[in-house]
Amino acid sequence: MNARQPGRPGEAAGRKPWIVGVSGASGTPYAAAVLRGLLAAGESVDLVVSRASRLTLLDETGIAFRDAHWREDLAAWLARGADGKPGTFTGTDVSDVRYWAAGDLAAGPSSGSYAAKGMLIVPASTACVAGVALGLSKDLLQRVASVMLKERRRLVVAVRETPLNGQTLRHLVALDEAGAVVLPASPAFYAGATHIQDLVDFVAGRVLDAAGVPHRLYRRWEGEVGGAARAALSGEPGEPGDRSGPRPGSGGPGPGSGSGSGGSEAREEA
To answer: Which residues is 209 bridged to in the sheet?
Structure first.
């Protein structure tokens, strides 16, 4: 099915989105947090979901992402917390999201003449990293990344894999040399995390930092030793100004019942 979305009536003529690519690596909560952050900041979003990432999304959230029902599936995905609980986040407006099927190589973002601020690949599998570094353009996600590089637009690659072999490291160096921002999905602990969502939001916040998009997803370091411990004790590790709905672990759905992701490692194809 062709999932290409024509311009909607009333859509701003000057629309210039961030393109979010979701590959098959484990880490779909990272993508959801980035998408929520972009939309909370008033940014337009174009979304590309690879075929492999649909399997990971199904495994990690139980959501089957369908071309014909992508908007309702996206809303359900963004409503889930990192612990897998539905309804953790509410009120996310997805009306300014445009979805492009991964197999649609004639999609708007496949051309350098398509207006876009840049691309965020989150999470990025090692296969995706290799495809972009080698310029394979085997699907729309890889093609759009190549377009970002040739047009000298911002490309953030949030690689999610461990350990990394020499070949992948060389691919990451090649991306860095080509102008991409290589951003490992490595959460830090100085922000006073008390819930898995805080760790996910830290990585998502760093992706948004690299894109220059304002957010309040985590408590920034200000040179105060011991701030993380005090933040954890106070129950305020981050600055949840961009979060909709109940904060995980404080009156809303709590941790401990997320669906597993044991099968994701074997599917890091693209």
So the answer is: none
Nearest CA-CA partner of 253 in 83, 90, 92 = 83
Q: What DSSP string runs through 203-248?
A: HHHHHHHHHT----SSPPP-S-TTHHHHHHHHT-SS-GGG--SPPT
Rounded CA gap, 32 and 202, in Å? 13
CA–CA dist 130, 217 (Å, integer): 30
Global pTM value: 0.85
52 is written with which tokens? Answer: 């492999």
8 Å CB contact between 157 and 121: yes
> ω into residue 240 within 30 of 0, thus cis?
no
- Give CA–CA dist 31/266, Å, rounded: 19
Measured torsion, CA atoms of residues 254, 259, 262, 267, in degrees rounded to the nearest 10: -120
CA–CA separation, 15 and 19 (whole Å): 12
Length of the chain: 270
User: Which H or E element spans position 101?
Assistant: strand 97-101
CA distance 14 to 20: 19
CA–CA gap between residue 38 and residue 40 (Å, rounded): 5
Number of other residues whose CB lies within 10 A of the CB of residue 81: 29
Which is nearest to 50 in space by CA: 155, 159, 141?
A: 141
Which tokens go with 252? 């809303």
The greatest distance separating any two alpha carbons of the chain, rounded to the nearest whole angstrom, comes to 54
pLDDT single digits (tens) 36-59: 999 999 999 999 999 999 999 999
Question: Residue 236 — pLDDT band, cuts 50, 70, 90?
Answer: low
**What is the DSSP track for 139-175?**
SHHHHHHHHHHHTT-EEEEEE--SS--HHHHHHHHHH
